[in-house]
Amino acid sequence: MEKEFLKQTSLISYSENNYQKNKYDAISDIILSNKIPSTEWVNTYGHKFSEIFKTIVNNNKLDDFLIKLFMDEEHSNKVILLDDLVFVSTRVLITKSETLESEQMLFIVSSSYLWSIQEKEGDYFDWIRERLEANKGIVRKKKTDYLLFLILESIVDNYQETYQKNAALSADKLNSTQIKPTPEFTAAVEKRKQELFNFKKATLSLRDTIIKLEKIEIDNFDIKYFSELKEQTNNLTSNIDFELQELESKINLIFSIQGHRLNEVMKTLTIFSVIFIPLTFLAGIYGMNFENIPELKYKYGYFILLGIMVLVTAAAVWYFKRKKWF
């Protein structure tokens, strides 16, 4: 287990003029301290190393409440201020997955180190690592507050890019001019609605985390960066709500089209019924097996009855047209 943990854990140590990327040889080498001059980013893939997490907490004399937090298998969104550090947990969508699965991310943040623990291997943070290595921008001049901001911003940006890409595909596939009241079209709309609900849930979850981060107070940790992230999540939520309203309108339009078609069918059937009811009545009378029906012996009775039927039909059609029923 220890070898697997060390394999899944990496260290990036940086300052304005220095950069190092290393792997640990032993758990005892993992030092989380505010006394070092550089800023350290420790990243671990996997949540199954709870006993090793406990050892790291004890070795570095961190707040022992972290042990309890590490033992919890499931975390709601949490931002907990402990001794000289902040524990952050949030659930993040894996947008590379077609089913939009999610993973739990944990962050232990202090003024000089950030320990990120991801449930699954792979992330959206390579561009941050590249900027650190190439010393692009101001990232190496800043501390862990800015690093945490970039990590959360990367998650938000990934949400926005995935949402915009899917929204463009959805707009083309579910165009208002191509609305068809078919089970396939309705299923496509409902599938898109479910995707949006997942995005909205994840975005609101991330926004709650950011709002909580804005309220913490810790030495050498600036919370000013997170207000921008809150605005980005608010904008994304607004876009999702707007598209959900559009999809709801399309569903209502589908039901309206189906109702209109059903009304047209019922109107046509009703008109035919009204026309044929008097004809059936006349045919029923003269189909009776009574001997004393006067018209039965009349030479032109058959043609007269047909003429009456034609007149009744013509009168009914004229009346319907006058009322503009068809």
UniProtKB/TrEMBL annotation:
Topological type in the membrane: Multi-pass membrane protein
Subcellular localization: Cell membrane
SUPFAM superfamilies: CorA soluble domain-like, Magnesium transport protein CorA, transmembrane region
Reaction catalyzed: Mg(2+)(in) = Mg(2+)(out)
Family matches, as InterPro entries: CorA_cytoplasmic_dom (IPR045861), CorA_TM1_TM2 (IPR045863), MgTranspt_CorA/ZnTranspt_ZntB (IPR002523)
One of the record's GO molecular function terms: magnesium ion transmembrane transporter activity
Keyword Membrane: yes
A single cellular component GO annotation: plasma membrane
UniProt name for this protein: Divalent cation transporter
Lineage, highest ranks first: Bacteria, Pseudomonadati, Bacteroidota, Flavobacteriia, Flavobacteriales
